[in-house]
Design brief:
Blueprint lengths: L13 H25 L2 H23 L5 H18 L4 H8 L1 H7 L5 H26 L7
Length: 144
């Protein structure tokens, strides 16, 4: 299946895709930190959940630049849900007590609404990845 609808999977150099994915990851982390700085309650929590999945999608594309948008979104969603369901065990709560980074990555408590917001993030990431493809495929040939 082609990387982007209507484009050959080799039309975009993996380096360009990886640079875009790395940039998207940095922007997503910035958005998450910014959201936490200005928002509280449900907006901060569920917005952070969606951004968590967007970040995972960017990391999937960084590792596998020729992945289709649907596969990247599905992979990010599966990882997000896997981490959430892992919170049903005592392992994540135990690990989260020892490291703030682990708490940010794994969380500590299962919360069913998080599953929906991860799907929202996967959908938003899919839309951005799909829309970014034609932009990445354009070649700059000099001054216009």
């Amino acid at each position: 299946m082609p990387l982007l609808p209507g484009l050959n999977s080799h039309a975009v150099e993996p380096t360009r895709i990886r640079l875009a994915a790395a940039g998207a990851a940095v922007v997503t982390v910035g958005a998450g930190l910014g959201l936490r700085a200005v928002a509280t309650g449900s907006l901060a929590k569920y917005g952070g959940d969606a951004l968590y999945t967007v970040l995972l999608l960017a990391l999937v594309v960084l590792v596998a630049p020729r992945v289709t948008p649907l596969t990247a979104a599905g992979s990010a969603l599966a990882i997000s849900w896997g981490v959430e369901f892992l919170q049903l065990s005592e392992m994540t709560a135990e690990l989260s007590q020892h490291s703030p980074v682990t708490r940010l990555v794994l969380g500590s408590t299962f919360n069913p609404p998080d599953l929906f917001w991860y799907a929202v993030g996967a959908g938003a990431g899919w839309l951005v990845h799909t829309a970014a493809g034609p932009c990445l495929a354009r070649r700059h040939t000099g001054p216009s």
